[in-house]
Amino acid sequence: MTQTLTAAPEKPAPVPASTGRAVRHGRAVPFFVVPFGILFVLFYLLPIGYAIVQSLYTVERTGTFGPAREVFGGLTQYERVFQDGAFWTSIGRVLVFGVVQVPVMLGLALLLALLLDSGLVKGRRFFRLAFFVPYAVPGVIAAIMWGFLYSPNLSPLKPVTSAIDFLSADLVLWAMANVVTWVYVGYNMLIIYSALLAIPAEVYEAARLDGAGPWRIAWSIKIPLVMPAIVLTTVFSIIGTLQLLAEPQVFRSFSSAVSSTYTPNLTVYSTSSIPNFNLAAAFSVVLALTTFVLSFVFLRITQRRGDA
């Protein structure tokens, strides 16, 4: 007679008692969220709302020298914005600027990031800091410095500036593009380089086992994996291009080709200096909407390509 032995059922592991930490963490959330919310409302939402409200008013005077008073004008200021040819010309100018300057800047940033990540460059810390140093220079100071370098009478490179007038109407836009590129290449390089450092080393090891060389790894692995960082820097660059102000404002002192309406932001600044704050607010709202639409369209296009 055989006897079947059955194993005794295992007792379930005891469930640790709740310590209540989740409740305490939940109560701590408002202490981190509320300060951000207050600052977000005060310095982001309220200024936007104030600009929209101001754009709906116009200034009227009783007689030629009568006191000025603000009255509700509806969309009167926006009609003036859409009829202002100089404003839309300035938007077209910065769009051309962005189509050329942004790919060049981000291409250089990507190249420098790949070089730092390749292991071929010695002294990575030094070069990483050296590439980033121009971003630490304030935009106005950088524009003044390059303005002196471009000026034929002040530049130490007189043979070059005498042969090529960088401040002429045909070249001054690209002279400013060079300043923006010099300042922001290092900033964008650090963003892309940080994304490269986040790629697991096992991915590179598997590619080398499959026979991929450095060029193949960079093209087929590194660039596709850092594409979200490139998209992020492109969005930042689109926003920055439409907000171009410091460089054209400084270059007005060096070149007569730069007018008070050379860029959209310079148009807003010049209009508010008249002063005509209501029209300047309408310019700002339209410019903000244009920036939002372009950034949103770019993100949608990149998302569709990523999903394809």
From TrEMBL:
It is a multi-pass membrane protein. Residues 91-298 form the ABC transmembrane type-1 domain. It is found in: Cell membrane. It holds the Pfam family BPD_transp_1. The chain crosses the membrane at residues 31-53, 94-117, 129-151, 171-199, 225-246, 279-299. Keywords: Cell membrane, Membrane, Transmembrane, Transmembrane helix, Transport. InterPro entries: MetI-like (IPR000515), MetI-like_sf (IPR035906), UgpAE/MalFG_permease (IPR050809). Gene3D superfamilies: MetI-like (1.10.3720.10). It comes from the Bacteria. The keyword Transmembrane helix applies. Belongs to the binding-protein-dependent transport system permease family. This is Sugar ABC transporter permease.
